[in-house]
Amino acid sequence: MKYFCNPLNIEYKYQFHQKEGQGGFVINREAADPSLVLFHDLYYLFPSMTAGFLTSKDLVSWEFHKFRNEMPIYDYAPDVRVIGDYLYFSASKRMSNCHFYRTKDPINDTFELIEGSFPFWDPNLFCDEDGRIYFYWGCSNMTPIYGVELDPASFKPKTEPLVMFGSREQEYGYERNGEDHVPPKTPEQIEATVQAMIKRNPGMPEEQKQMMYKYMGNDPYIEGAWMTKHNGKYYLQYAIPGTQYNVYCDGVYVSDAPLGPFHLAKNNPFSYKPGGFFPGAGHGSTVEDRSGMLWHTATMRISINHNFERRLGLWQAGFDQDGELFCDQRYGDWPLSVEQKPWDKPEWMLLSYGREVTASSGTGMEHVTDENVQTWWKAAESRPGEWVQLDLGKAYDVRGIQINFADDQIQAELPEGAELQGEMHDRRYIDQGNHVTRWILEGSVDGKEYFVIEDKSEAMTDLSHDFIVREDGLQARYIKLTVKELPFNQIPCISGLRVFGKTEGELPGKPENVAVEILSPLDIQVQWEKADATGYNVLWGHSPDKLYHSYMVFGRTSQKIGALMKEEPLYIRVDSFNEVGITEGGTIKVF
């Protein structure tokens, strides 16, 4: 199989988060902050809060490996780099020194400890071609990204930390906090929160009060550094503004030297996926595969049960003829072949959006096909055999089906002997138990005679975003999912039963009368006339041949874009798509 569909089809471990000041736990799945490297001809993927790592031969199928006891599984943002014969690892916590580890064989051998000498958060190790080693870190809405050269023997800093860059959200729209870059807190809310803290601590110094206003305000988090070198240039990537928002993204600065000075690249943010079924594309890593093609992996968000309810995405990336780093996310949660090239049109189109849904019981059936991961159908009971079925309207040539299970306020006891770990307010337990997700997927042409597409009623896996591929295709109008067993005996919830494939017919109409209203130097509102289409993709960039950014929308003919950079040229295009294919619109110069 050469196809995958974001989020990556891996097991996402359950987390028991302690409720602050309350009893009980918030339970959700999480994996985030992925570091991906190629080591000894095998791809190694290290995500946060997974208690291990994954390997793959092809970037499609992944095998999980549990960490040995020496590894800090509760430290965030694991970073891995290949230096010589070793794979180096580090992860972070704020309150104490963080260590480095290395091994020649991550799967079969232990990791050797290299004792750390300072605390850091969101680390990134980089070895230059001359053998000198550099280190970058930072995760805060009050401090910048730092960098330093390390001694290659002791891994201790050779100098004091240097500031690489900080946030400049007044000039770079994509750095602004909040869903679609709309501030999450009003000035009144910020004031009330800070005053409540001052009331509990009446002797708080004025300097600390000012820090609290900043910490509790709308300032973005700048974090997740990752360094890539290309043609003698240093590309220092970073994540912003906040992991729980649809606009979580990765920007990039460029320099002629590993410790700067850095200047912002023209194409920013280079990794940005605010729309579609599963948004978010921040805090990740960039790696070259065996063939020399570039891939970028990053964090996607659900953030309903908990802000850190997150998943992993993988996209094709590259450098253009001008040395600009880009990431192809136009159809970033649709099936992708690892053999495609960046900007190739999808091989299979979305067939399931807005289709009629029936179910054995429960509420929210329409959410199974609304292309929104934050909404779902919930059955009435947790009994085996609850089912949901969608009607595509006619028989299609079906090639791929993605089954997305949701978690809805799971009630469960902390496993016996489990201990909460972590620092500050985020005390948690990573559940490493053997859970299973079991179901049967069937298809039918007429709604009477059914055939089995995939039977996982005896599966020993726990895949919450399972992806089934039929490269040769199958004919089906009805797709029926019957749930057999879920972790914690929870009530079945499906956020998306997504069907992809091919059909003959007419392409969608071209979006006409596209109008752009300039709201501010950082914001525009794009509108167009409704076409006979399933959805639209709003594309933009600083050059007509570099429309690298996109926002996929369904069910509307307007979209606000708030990710602009002040005083940079802007071109836009609106494309339409349906079950047959894509119709490109005309490119418009805005300013």
Jot down its keywords.
single chain, 591 residues, mainly beta, Tachylectin-2, Chain A, Jelly Rolls, 4 domains, 8-stranded antiparallel β-sheet, 6-stranded antiparallel β-sheet, 43 strands, globular
Q: How far is the N terminus from the C terminus?
A: 45 Å
* Total domains: 4
Q: For the record, what CATH class of the largest domain applies?
A: Mainly Beta
Please identify, by name, the CATH architecture of the largest domain. Answer: 5 Propeller
Q: Helical proportion? A: under 10%
Q: Gist?
A:
This protein is mainly β and 591 residues long.
Report on the structure:
- This protein folds into four domains: 31-183 and 218-337, Tachylectin-2, Chain A; 189-217, no CATH class; 349-412 and 425-502, Galactose-binding domain-like (Jelly Rolls); 515-589, Immunoglobulins (Immunoglobulin-like), CATH 2.60.40.10.
- It is built from two helices and 43 strands.
- The strands form ten sheets. Strands 27, 28, 29, 30, 32, 33, 34 and 35 form an eight-stranded antiparallel β-sheet that branches. Strands 14, 17, 18, 19, 20 and 21 form a six-stranded antiparallel β-sheet that branches. Strands 38, 39, 41, 42 and 43 form a five-stranded antiparallel β-sheet that branches.
- Helix 1 packs across helix 2 (206-216).
- It is globular and about 70 Å long.
